[in-house]
Predict the 3D structure of the following.
Amino acid sequence: MLIPSHVGIIMDGNGRWAKERGLPRREGHLAGINALESVLRRAELLGIPCLTVYAFSTENWKRPGMEVKFLLQLFEETLLNRADELFKNNVKVKVIGRREGLPSNLIETIKKIEEKTRNNKAFQLNIAFNYGGRAEIIDLVSSIVRDIQEGKKIDLNDEKTIANYLYSPEYPEVELLIRTSGEKRLSNFLLWQSAYAELYFTDKYWPDFDGDELEKAIEDFKKRNRRFGGLNEEGGG
Ligand code: FPP
């Protein structure tokens, strides 16, 4: 089994990591940035071409206002502080999710980093922010309806045609989906794109996940026998 062409990660457990250490939750999120950096470096080394990480879901607005504010600020600061480094490492950054509801300065920062890294080719980093899989499907349906009203011919029975309306249709489907912190749920992450993903769950909290942990997940993936609903070579079901 080859290296997965697209890895999705639900980075979970920052709060519990902090709590175990008697630290405020924000320290867990800060440590989470370091984990992401380690994973990103190793992903590039391993030859994984595309990584999508879940940084803020459409449901995360329900958290206390202070935490939401902190996460929005942390995201913007991270984008601003890491833009040059990501650019130099030939990383192309794309932020997927709804822009409505985000502060205008954050929207500007997102646009700037996407524009700056637009022609980078070595590695694709998608950050799901204000993202929900169902919201993505609702947005896709609205776009299709709009196009049909404008007279466009659309084959509604063709999965590829429908998939072209996803937030990032240009990337391969998720082949490996990782969730940290012991939870075993999809939580509305990349619902369409993960239809055939191999799932990997680990008890490690996100701040304790790093390049070595990513490598373990990849080794596990390599042992899996992917059949996509068909039969394997020996004819087993
Ligand atoms: C889940 O832990 C984590 C989040 C909701 C935020 C993820 C953010 C980061 C890893 C850092 C920011 C990333 C970028 C790209 C700037 P939790 O708070 O749900 O933990 P808990 O379940 O233990 O409470």
Notes: The beta strands are 7-10, 50-57, 91-96, 123-131, 176-179, 198-201. Residues 11-16, 29, 32-33, 36, 55, 60, 71, 74-75, 78, 127, 206 surround farnesyl diphosphate (CB under 6 Å). The CA atoms of residues 99 and 107 lie 7 Å apart.
